[in-house]
Amino acid sequence: ILNVEQSPQSLHVQEGDSTNFTCSFPSSNFYALHWYRWETAKSPEALFVMTLNGDEKKKGRISATLNTKEGYSYLYIKGSQPEDSATYLCALTNAGKSTFGDGTTLTVKP
Amino acid sequence: GAVVSQHPSRVICKSGTSVKIECRSLDFQATTMFWYRQFPKQSLMLMATSNEGSKATYEQGVEKDKFLINHASLTLSTLTVTSAHPEDSSFYICSASPVLSGNTIYFGEGSWLTVV
């Protein structure tokens, strides 16, 4: 059974702060890692798919890095905005099947 | 972009009855769809893999006779919770990947099931 851990569980920041979350996973048998942004009553929105050690991806103010050898990925948000408030999930994926972490719930206060 | 639609979003049923949840890929075909559930304060857990035209594959601990999965077409998978009990109350969500899309995965909006 894969164990995907995310930290912190929740985070409260002020608008304009930069923040980051961690996703830890077993480094063996790695195939792909997904980051999702999940707002209440909506579908999880895929942010990044990462497959290679050392991958760095960026979408606007959000970026992510991947270290498959040590088994972690970081998600960074620069200059947080209230609309960034959501739960951020990471998942290890292989052949479409995903093992999820518990998520990090971000609240950005205006 | 690609969309996966899940219906109903919320359902309340009486104990002992059956409930069907649909998962549709609206603008792509998916030979495989996945069903997850999430209990309060827990992570999303894979229940089963739905395979078009063949039997679903269930994860350990998931009763296949209780959670019936049908994937009769390339755009529709259904999950039927049979003889539902209060402990089946949970959040159920499906995902699908377009054929030959590699690691691209789309999720439905999820369905809240409450069994009273």
Quick overview of this protein structure:
The complex is a heterodimer of chains A (110) and B (116). Chain A is an all-beta fold. Chain A has strands spanning 5-7, 10-14, 19-24, 32-38, 45-50, 56-59, 62-67, 72-77, 86-94, 97-100, 104-109.
Give the key terms.
heterodimer, A: about 110 residues, mainly beta, six-stranded mixed β-sheet, 11 strands, about 55% strand, B: about 120 residues, seven-stranded mixed β-sheet, globular
Describe the secondary-structure layout.
The complex is a heterodimer of chains A (about 110) and B (about 120).
Chain A: E1 5-7, E2 10-14, E3 19-24, E4 32-38, E5 45-50, E6 56-59, E7 62-67, E8 72-77, E9 86-94, E10 97-100, E11 104-109
Chain B: E1 4-7, E2 10-13, E3 19-25, E4 32-38, E5 45-51, E6 57-58, E7 67-73, E8 76-81, E9 90-96, E10 106-107, E11 111-115
Parallel strand pairs in B: 2-11
Antiparallel strand pairs in B: 1-3, 3-8, 4-5, 4-9, 5-6, 7-8, 9-10, 9-11
Q: Describe it for me?
A:
The complex is a heterodimer of chains A (110) and B (116). Chain A is mostly beta strands and 110 residues long. Chain A contains no helices and 11 strands. In chain A, strands 2, 4, 5, 9, 10 and 11 form a 6-stranded mixed sheet that branches. In chain A, strand 7 (62-67) and strand 8 form a beta hairpin. The termini of chain A are far apart. Chain B is mainly beta. Chain B has no helices and 11 strands. The radius of gyration of chain B is 13 Å and the shape is globular. In chain B, strands 2, 4, 5, 6, 9, 10 and 11 form a 7-stranded mixed sheet that branches. A 4-stranded antiparallel sheet of chain B has the order 1-3-8-7, with no helix packed on it. Classes of the chains: A mainly beta (110), B mainly beta (116). The interface between A and B is medium-sized, with 22 and 22 residues.
